[in-house]
Design goal:
By secondary structure, the chain is α+β, with helices and mostly antiparallel strands. The chain has a domain of 133 residues: Jelly Rolls (Sandwich), CATH 2.60.120.10. Helices cover 30% and strands 22% of the residues. The chain has seven helices and ten strands. The strands form two sheets. Strands 1, 2, 3, 5, 6, 7 and 9 form a seven-stranded antiparallel sheet that branches. β1 and β2 form a beta hairpin. α1 crosses α3. The longest helix is centred in the first third of the chain and has 19 residues.
């Protein structure tokens, strides 16, 4: 229930996209083992940088960077509608937003979450199952999703068309892989199928990185194809 060394190396080298970086940083906050591995992976780069001859940057570099940042277009609020009846109790600019079980590192990577006026919840075609798109990487097109499962609920059975990474932030769920608790990092290979289920007295909050949309199974798959 940890990211692979290859995934950690991608984050350490700066090659990972935003959704994966968010998941890994969220996991590192509670996993001493992966933090130690990450430290080992970053040692060669740090040694290389320390061996380079230092040069003072141009005196106008900082002001030039500030000017370029000021010219960048402001990000538009994420799309979404008011939470429907039964959606998780989270509303923009509401005290409950601060209570969401998002790791500090995730909030730092996604500062726009604190300014949303409408949280983009979408119903997952099952009672008590909701998700929201938090970010989309412009280069890899991978998507970062926030998922919520109420107690005694399930996420519809689906097949992964590409790799899916999942970080459990609070609570837990069960599926074919077994039990997944808060802080654990799960990887689902292309072609794998599962149906996450929560206990009667436990909800689940998680983050997921998708490279492609999942394929719903059963009658929900028919609805998914009809809406495509």
């Amino acid at each position: 229930m940890h990211p692979t060394e290859e995934i950690l190396l991608g984050v350490a080298s700066g090659e990972s996209d935003l959704p994966r970086r968010v998941l890994v940083e969220g996991h590192l906050g509670g996993c001493a083992s992966c933090r130690a591995t990450m430290a080992e992976l970053t040692l060669p780069g740090g040694a290389l940088l320390r061996g380079l001859d230092g040069q003072a940057p141009p005196s106008n570099l900082w002001q030039g960077l500030l000017g370029r940042i000021a010219q960048l277009p402001q990000a538009a609020p994420a799309p979404g509608a008011d939470a429907a009846a039964g959606a998780p109790p989270v509303r923009a600019l509401d005290p409950e937003v601060a209570a969401m079980p998002l790791p500090t590192s995730v909030r730092c990577e996604l500062p726009a979450l604190a300014t949303l006026r409408r949280f983009p919840w979408r119903w997952a075609l099952a009672p008590g199952a909701w998700y929201a798109e938090l970010a989309r990487d412009p280069w890899t097109r991978s998507v970062l999703l926030l998922g919520y499962l109420a107690p005694r609920s399930f996420l519809p059975a689906h097949r992964h068309l590409a790799q899916e990474d999942v970080l459990v932030m609070a609570g837990g769920f069960d599926d074919r892989q077994g039990r997944h608790e808060a802080g654990e990092y799960a990887i689902y290979e292309p072609g794998s199928e599962h149906r996450p289920v929560t206990e009667p007295d436990e909800e689940c909050w998680c983050l997921a990185r998708l490279e492609q949309p999942n394929l719903l199974l059963g009658w929900r798959g028919w609805l998914q194809r009809l809406a495509a």
